[in-house]
Amino acid sequence: MSVDLGDRSYDVHVGAGVRARLSTVVPAGARRAAVITQPNVGWDVDSGLDQCVLEVPDGEGAKSLAEVERLCREMSEVGFTRSDVIVAVGGGVVTDLAGFVAAVYHRGMRYISVATTLLAQVDAAIGGKTGVNLPQGKNLVGAFWQPHAVLCDTETLATLPSREMRSGQGELAKYHFLTGDDLDALDLVERIAAAVRIKADVVAADEREGGRRAILNYGHTLAHAIETAGRYDLRHGEAVAVGLVYAAEVAMRLERIGADRVAAHRRVVTGYGLSDRLPTVLDDDEELLALFGRDKKAIDGLTLVLDSDRGVEPVVGVPESVLREALAAVR
Ligand code: NAD
Ligand code: GLY
Q: Around Cβ 313, how many Cβ atoms within 10 Å?
């Protein structure tokens, strides 16, 4: 399937073993491939080009300007040019970082993502949001820079730690509510493909998040607040899972959806083995409400992405009393 963006359109391949297609999707004219990956990933790729492997450290800390500089220096020493290609092999940390290096090295070169986590396959590797973190916050420096191709090799999920798998399932749960598609009826590979299709359509309609792309942040307002509050180890998708249920509880109190739809949110989330409740240590409503206001996606007062009969959409000015009541419902 493809992400349709005119002359920047690209294909996303989903399935077991699709990383073997790498040599068939490298751009014409590329002579070298810089394979950017992490020690924990452990999946080799063969681009068919003169290839060098550049490892970055494991974990979110690798998304830094220091790593961008180090990678660019190493590529410069090897002699990479704008016509060569970067191949990102890993999860969202690697695809965000390598995609940003591709956006800035020699003013922009092509990159291919071989996504090896569930979260990267259904979200991070698609759509061209690339970037790194600052000490002041996540993803504060970046670029919209679309890949040349994406390979979501479901075989690589076999080695993914179960915690990382669950985190990806939190993002996958989101897609159950973005369209009328029945993801329940699909097996995992078909669900990944369905999520890719949904994300590809949203990105094609609104590449730079002028409007519709905001629906991909469904469940993320509470999730970002949970992550910013910190104090315990919760993976992003685990936070999104409870965030989805919270958004449903808010929508019900605004009479946008009924109790049956809230129950469907809880069923999907718990069906993936994820919790539909806030961790008990996060017992301070005031702290969470204050963090909602700092969500960088807030446009005018507090905007939440909420479900309705018409589908999921951003809603401006949700009353504080509703936000408080819904918090009680996820405790
Ligand atoms: P991650 O990239 O940190 O990967 C999780 C861990 O799994 C790492 O230790 C990694 O080395 C390891 N790993 C990766 N593939 C493996 C495999 N097949 N087998 C064994 N281990 C493997 O985490 P993630 O959840 O994939 O990505 C999180 C990042 O994605 C965050 O930085 C987030 O900001 C970003 N993100 C970006 C977008 C976007 O649109 N650009 C969307 C969502 C998330
Ligand atoms: N992960 C949200 C987006 O790509 O817009």
A: 16
